[in-house]
Amino acid sequence: MLSIPLVARYLVHTRWIWPGLPLILILLGRLNALTAGGALAFPDEDRHLQSVKAVEALLDGQVRQACLHLADTQGRPADALLRLPVAALQVAGQHWAQLPAESPASLLLVQLQNWLVLALNMLLFWHLARRWLPVATADTALVVYSALASTQLYLRHLLPYDMALGITLAALVLVSAPAITHRRPGWAGFIAGGLGTLAFTVYPGYYFAPLLPTALLLFRPARQWMAAAGRGLLGSGLILLPLEALTRIGHISYLRSLQNLSGTINQGDFAEGFSFALRYLWEVEGIIGLGLLLLALGGLVALFQRPYPPIARVVALVPMGAWLLHASLAYWGHQFVFYGRTVHFFIPFLVLTAATAVQALPVRWRRVVAAAGSALALLTLVRFGSIFCALAYPRDVLAAYRVAPAHPQRHTNEAGVLHALDYTPPPLPWLSSTGPGRAAPDSLLLINFTFLYPLLRPVCQPVAPPPAGARLLYTAPHFLTLPAYGFEGFTPDKRAQLLRCRFQCRLYQLSR
Fold first, then answer.
1. How many other C-beta atoms can be found within 10 angstroms of the C-beta atom of residue 341?
2. DSSP codes, 392-448
3. What is residue 76's DSSP assignment?
4. In 3D, which of 491, 499, 44 has the Cα closest to residue 268?
5. For residues 215 and 317, what is the distance between their CA atoms, to the nearest angstrom?
6. In terms of Cα–Cα distance, which of 499, 496, 458, 494 is closest to 482?
7. How open is the CA angle 181-182-187, to the nearest 5 degrees?
8. Using CB atoms within 10 A of its CB, is residue 52 exposed (0-12), middle (13-18) or buried (19+)?
9. What is the H or E stretch that residue 474 is in?
10. Nearest CA among 192, 173, 182 for reference residue 232
11. pLDDT tens digits, residue range 212-240?
12. pLDDT confidence tier of residue 435, bands split at 50, 70 and 90
């Protein structure tokens, strides 16, 4: 019979305790976070439904109509294509189980896809870290990155950011692989061009993503540049040309739609060009965000003091250059603004550069900093998770209370928010048209069941109290009161208002 010390040594040796245990808990915590819903909370998430419509059109034999739906995604045709498998599962559930594709239960399939993408991104992050960091430091970097608020934020939403980021990480891992690095410049160029372009076609807001794998090619001998460039153009063309052909069948040119890219990234404040990322790190990540930034500065210094492989320099310097480019375009050019999703792209590279600084410390200090950073990140995640799981997503609240679209309801919003973006009850399976489940079909009063944009008045302006006899069914913080969400298109004063007013979603049942 195995002794307890022997079992303990086995677990440590097989890395089940560290980093296995915290990473498993993080993955399980993400699954638990999906119980709150959140799908289709942002207007941009409606693009996923184009994939569902494309599958339905294909089943009806309407190829041209399917291509139109895939093209009608504002420069994201690759994202729509990558969503087709899960969209097909949704359509199957709709046909065979009467589970509407827009219902929270069906959208859970898409959220599970997000969960899988995040898990794969963790694996890619670790392999990228191992290109120049030892196992212990790579493990610490992975735990810290996996525990950050920004890493969890888009789990619930039908958005392409984590997919595009994952493709970029995959490109870096493959191009920096020893088998590719020491030979085969053509393959390196092909992978860099193909995957870099694919990341852009998934989410064009990451227009700087192809720069990272491409920059890695420049560290090769000059005589290999032409071969790498030629294959890179081939890889890029094999992504762009089929997408252009597909969208042309749908009477929309993908390449022409990119001409208006800057016009779609302007909801915010251009004056925040250089300060946005700093504010995001402090207000969203807190002390751990500030610590990562300071360590990353040390990592940049270490890169010039010690010999490191090219991938380490690319991971540190190219994202910094991309950030300066985007900030300059925002501040001086008024072409783009920063969103939280933009900073989200830079976070893994910030963590890796910070890990480089940790590795450069003396062994004793390295262990202290790694332990303190890991503990702080995990404690911060626990605090963030308690807030994240308590948020109210109006569509999912209405679904939980079995509110039917035909149910009499009245919307009232605070702070002068108009009713254009009020949430309507999602279609639910096995729900009669007479009302929400077994409840009597009385009128409902919905307070702040809307997307809180724009905030037309600078004051909170609470609504009038509900009529006498009204029964409070539900109250919880509106999801946009989470600081991280405020960085998605809100100006600094409006972000402050979201926090100050502490908007609550309240559902009342009115007496007859």
1. 24
2. B-HHHHHHHTT--TTS-EEEE-STT--STTB--PPP-TT--TTSSTTS----EEEES
3. -
4. 491
5. 10
6. 499
7. 55
8. buried
9. strand 471-477
10. 192
11. 999 999 988 888 888 889 999 999 999 99
12. very low
Instruction: Categorise residue 404: left if φ over 0, alpha if ψ from -120 to 50, beta otherwise.
Output: beta
Query: Model-level pTM?
Result: 0.94
Pull the structure tokens for residue 116: 């899988």
What is the token pair recorded at 84? Answer: 């087709």
* 66 touches 54 (CB < 8 A): yes
- Closest of 324, 163, 167, 333 to residue 265, by C-alpha: 333
Q: Are 402 and 436 in contact (CB under 8 A)?
A: yes
Tokens of 357: 């600084």
Provide the residue type at 403 as one letter.
V
Question: Quick one: how far is CA 474 from the chain centroid?
Answer: 28
d(CA 35, CA 442): 27
Write out the two tokens for 439: 């409840």
Long-range contacts of 107-111 (CB under 8 A, 24+ apart): 107/37, 107/39, 107/40, 107/158, 108/34, 108/39, 110/39, 110/48, 110/83, 110/86, 110/158, 111/34, 111/38, 111/39, 111/155, 111/156, 111/158
Give the Cα separation of 377 and 295 in Å (integer). Answer: 14
Q: For residue 121, give the amino acid letter.
A: N
**Cα separations (Å) of 75 from 64, 199, 204, 261?**
18, 12, 7, 8
At 357 the pLDDT is 96
Rounded Cα gap, residues 236 and 194, in angstroms:
5
Amino acid, single-letter form, for residue 232: G
CB atoms within 10 A of CB 278: 14
pLDDT digits (tens, 9 = 90+) for 372-390: 999 999 999 999 999 999 9
Q: 180: helix, coil or strand? A: helix
